[in-house]
Sequence to fold (544 residues):
Amino acid sequence: MSITVQIPTALRRHTAGVGSITCAAANLDQLFSVLDEQFPALKPHLRDDSGQIRRFLSVYVNEEDIRFLGGSDYAFQDGDEVLLVPSIAGGTN
Amino acid sequence: MSTDQTHYELRCRECGRRFGNQPRSICEECFSPLEVAYDYDWIRYLLGEGTIDPVRTMRERITQRAPSMWRYSDLLPLPEGFEPRLPVGFTPLFRAPQLAAKLAGNGEARTAAQNLYIKNDAVCLPTLSFKDRVVAVALAQARAFGFDTVACSSTGNLANAVAAHAARLGLKAWIFIPADLEPAKILGTQVFGANVVRISGSYDQVNRLCSQIADERNWGFVNVNLRPYYSEGSKTVGFEIAEQLGWRLPDNVVVPMAGGSLIIKIKKAFDELSKLGLVEEKPVRFFGGQATGCSPISTAVKTGNTEIEPQKPATIARSLAIGNPADGHYAIKTIKGTGGWSEDVSDPEVIDSIRLLAETEGIFTETAGGVTVGCAAKLYRQDRILAEETTVLCITGNGLKTTDVLAGIYEAERPIAPKLTEFEKYLEETLAASKPRQPEVAREAAAGIAV
Fold:
C-alpha cells in the first residue's frame, strides 16, 4: 500500500525543501511517525508538547477533512493523497 | 517584500514571534494565526497626546475627518502614504424601537425601544456588506506589497467586495466560490470584471484549495496571505459603534459568525479605544449567532468546549456556512470571556427574522442578518439580554443579494384594471381575505415559546 503526503510550503524549510513523500503508513499516527523519522525538525511543528496535532493544522485525505473520516481511526487506503494544510478562515465573518 | 511601517507588525497569536510586515498569515513555528500588533504610544502621539485635553483632542481629530472607516486609519495597518480611493464604512447606527418591542415582549417594550440599536452594514459601500471594510485594508496592503493580482475564497459578500475594490484599484482579481452560491452574488462579482471560479464543493473545500493555490502563486489572497491585515478592517465596525453611541461602549453586541473573526475584532476595537482613553472602559458581553445547520461555534459554546468540531454545512445562510472556522477557537474565548453566549436558529427562523426586521425597521437584510435577529430574539427570551441594557445588533449584509430564500413566500398579485371602482373592489376583497401577518419569531415570542 502506498499513500502520498503533500507538505505545504510553510513547512518545507523543515524538510529540506521536500514537498511530497510517499509512504506506507496505515493511519495518522503512523504517518506522523514516518514524518518524524524522515524530518526530525518537522515534529514540533506538527504536534504540540502533549503529542496532539496542532490546533491550526488540518489534515485532508482526497479533499476530505480527516475528522469527517474518523480522524486518527481512519485507515488509509492505497493511493490516498494526504494534504497537510494550515487552517485559514474567510467567508462573511 | 516589505514595507516601512513602524507602528504595527505581525505577531503570532500563540507564541508571540514577530514577523515584521509581509504577506503571511501563519506562524512558521507553531502554525498559529498571525495578528497585527500596534505601538499604541505612537498612536497616542499621532492622535494628540501631550495636548491639554488629549482625549478631547483625539476625539476631535477623528470626528473632523470624513465620515468613512478611514477616519480610524491610525488604528489600522495601512501602508505609509496610503490615500484611500473609496469612502468605505461609517454606516448608520440607529435605535430599533419596533423590533425591540417584538424581541423584548410587551412588558418591557418601551425600555427595550430606548436601548436596542442596529448597526446597518447592509448599506456599506460599495458592495453592501461589511466585507468592504476588510477588503479595503487588504487591498491597500496588496498594492504596497506589489501584487498585481488579488484573490479570495468566498461565500459571496467577500467575492463582491474583492471584485469591486480590485476594479477600482486596477488590480486583477481571481474569485473562488462554491458552485451553488446565490445567483445575485455571482452576478455581483462578474460585473466588476473579475475571474470567477466556481468549485463543486463546500466553502471549506474552496478555502482549502485556495490555501494550496496561494502556496503556488504570487497572488495577494485577501483571506490567506493577507489575512492578518484584512481582518483588522473589521475593527472599524467597533470603532463606529462606540463613536456613534457618543464615545461609549454598549452593554451587549450580537454578531453573526462564520469564520469567527468579526466578533473578536469588534472586541479588539473596544479594547483599543479603552486603552487610548477614547471611551470609558467597561465590560461588554459578546453574543454570537449562527444558523443551526452550520453552528460549530455555537455548539461549542453550548456544550462547554473550547475547540471546534467541524460540521458539514446545511443551511440557507450560505454566507455563514463555514463548517471549520479557523477563528472559532478565539470566538469561543471572546464569548465565554466576556460573559456572553452563542445561539443558533433554523432556516425557517432565519426567513421569519429577515421579514421581522424588514417589517419593523425597514431594513432588508440577507440571511446572516436574519440569523442575528433570530438569535437576538432567543437571547432576550432567555434573559441573557435585558431590555434596560444597551444592545447593538450587527447587520452585515443586504437582502437584495439573497432574494432566492424568499422565493414563493410572496404571491404575485393579480393585476387590476386602472379604474377606481376596480381598486375599491380589490381593496375590499383583500382586506376581507387577509389578516395582518405575524412572523414566527414574533408569534413565538408573544406566546413565550422557546424556539
Remarks:
- Chain B touches chain A through 56 residues (CB under 8 Å).
- Confidence is low (pLDDT under 50) at residues 1-5, 442-451 of chain B.
